Amino acid sequence: MNKNDIVLVLIIFSPYFYARIKERMSQDILERITYLRDELRQHNYNYYVLDNATISDYDFDNKLKELQSLEEQNPQYFDATSPTQRVGGAITKNFNTVAHKNRMYSLDNSYSIEDLYDWEKRIQKNLGTQNTEYTCELKYDGASINLSYENGKLVSAVTRGDGFQGDDVTANIKTIKSIPLQLKGELLDSFEIRGEIILPLNGFNQMNEERISAGEEPYRNPRNTASGSLKLQDSAEVAKRPLDCLLYHIVGEKIPYKTHYQTLEKARNIGFKVPKAVKVCKDIKAVFEFINHWDIERHNLPYETDGIVIKVNNLHQQDELGFTAKAPRWAIAYKFKAEQESTLLHEITYQVGRTGAITPVANLEPVQLAGTIVKRASLHNADQIEKLDIRVNDTVFVEKGGEIIPKVVGVDFEKRPLDSQPTQYAANCPDCETALVRKEGDAKHYCPNEYGCPTQITGRIQHFISRKAMNIDGLGSETVELLFKEGLIFNYADLYDLRAEQIVPLERMAEKSAENIVAGVELSKQIPFEKVLFALGIRFVGETVAKKLAKHYKSIDNIMASSFEDLTNVDEIGDRIAQSIVDFSNDLSSIQLVDRLKSYGVQLEMSAESQENQTDKLQGNIFVVSGVFHQMSRNELKKAIEDNGGKVSSSISKKTSYIVAGDNMGPSKRTKAEDLEIAIISEQEFIEMIR
Ligand code: AMP
Ligand code: ZN
After folding, report:
1. What are the strands, taking DSSP E only, across 1-142?
2. Which helix (H) or strand (E) holds 146?
3. Probe ligand 1: pick from 140, 159, 303, 324, max atoms within 8 Å of CB?
4. Sheet of 244-251, strand order
5. Is the pTM of this model over 0.70?
6. For the chain, which domains are there?
7. Residue nearest atom 9 in ligand 1 by C-alpha distance
8. What's the pLDDT tens digit per position in 29-74?
């Protein structure tokens, strides 16, 4: 070996050289992995989004297998957005509940062109301009989903839930091939996109054929099957279902587009499935043409739709219009005429609610209606039964409107049996048999046996523990019934006396669940006063009223000491609510309950902390908020107004005290404000007002 050879050998065996070779090889592997991922992604997109296959199943499977094995051998290159992640396999035992960053609202409904003209009038008045245009989309009938993307990758998928929080179903959603795990283009670093998980009719029918031939009960309708699929524990099972996802709304800060239509086009361009049946309409007449077209054409769609959604196209105008407590003002659903069926009414039964209110229920011969089998329908109240003259053994018309519970809308009098007798409304409570009462002006009958009627007792406790009230984790409705049945609780104050060793011996209870209940009850002592007030279940004192009262009176003692006149002087508290509070305050059992809650340390007055942020500085002033703000969001601004005793209104009138104007305040609003000589202040000036 000469000197040169020695140098060569040294080089070859040097760690440096090895490292280089390894690097080179792994670069090749990474390149191949990346190549395969990109290619498979594109084929998925072509097939599932564009509906245009560009590879045979056989070749696709082979490439997927190659990718799978490369990823297995090189776990350092794992990527949660790889096409291999779509086959499922992850098991979710309990879905995590997560709060939505942006609330998921519902939609208001309309049923006629007049409704739409009314809606247009409202928004134009609100915006102070006639200059509006609309986008029309189909209303996809499935389960809503909120997808979050960060830096081009899907990071989470959450169901709508109650709009404030939903279930994290990411593992299941990833198996839906038309949802991009990795975007094809850029939009924002971080955004959410909303859509509907649907089960196309073809796939639904095929699933049912398989079930029937396996001797199983078929699924009732595509919508329920789609939403049920999202909550399956085994994601591999979800992967087998032909689910699809249609997108309709991007949510994010500083969206770089002017119109809703543009955001939909952008969403489509970066890989989302946005149906082509979207149209920009200059006026309501054009909207109605779209509706009429789809009312017929919808029967040829591959999936179900129950209406059209009309949205104000201009995003800035959407922002101006904002939301009601339940739905955006800038959008409205138009529902196609509800399906109606006739069927036999076998029996009228009665239900008691937690407040003692009685609801009559029609028990029907089962009938197929809009995809579901209906056996029971609401009859509302005695007046309704009398007005429609509904009788047992009548053939009645049942309709499914926007609500989940179907209703009886009329009687087929020609089919009425000759021996038919008018309906005698129930005289006694179906649960405790106490004679029912009906106060003047009330549509409903009530069971007055407030503290003896089992359904009312458990109903009140169930309300007390519910999420918007005391939010007691670990305690469900059924457990409340069990604890009541076993004689451990008769009212909500009893919850605070519960000990784990009393609960453990009960059916289906274990040490852990008993401890959870006691811990949950303990934790509820921190729930703020306004929620406690709501939890007390005073008739007519809902969430909003409870907030008002808490803010005005600051403590339960003040509320209970106030007179009827006192109460009616509070903004938005009417006679009915005031009377109900006075009744509660004079009721011995209520007084005792409240005293007991106090003794356990439940928050029955507003904490010093929350009082601190609340002032009367803006008392008597009405504000209109318009434009885009920098230091706080529009919602924070509104909350600050209310916290400081002011009122927020959505339209400018003579009563308006101030307009807080951000960037891009609508020009017509400005003109109107100037005409009425209303002070326009900036965000900064507002902040100084409350400082
Ligand atoms: P509802 O549940 O009847 O209050 O209707 C509101 C729901 O309609 C929303 O939560 C969405 O999930 C759903 N939806 C279906 N299609 C659309 C669409 N094109 N735009 C907005 N919402 C839609
Ligand atoms: Zn009763």
Report:
1. 97-99, 109-110, 134-140
2. strand 143-150
3. 140
4. 153-159, 143-150, 190-198, 244-251
5. no
6. 3-87 (1.10.287.610), 109-333 (3.30.470.30), 622-690 (3.40.50.10190)
7. 106
8. 999 999 999 999 999 999 999 888 888 888 999 999 999 999 999 9
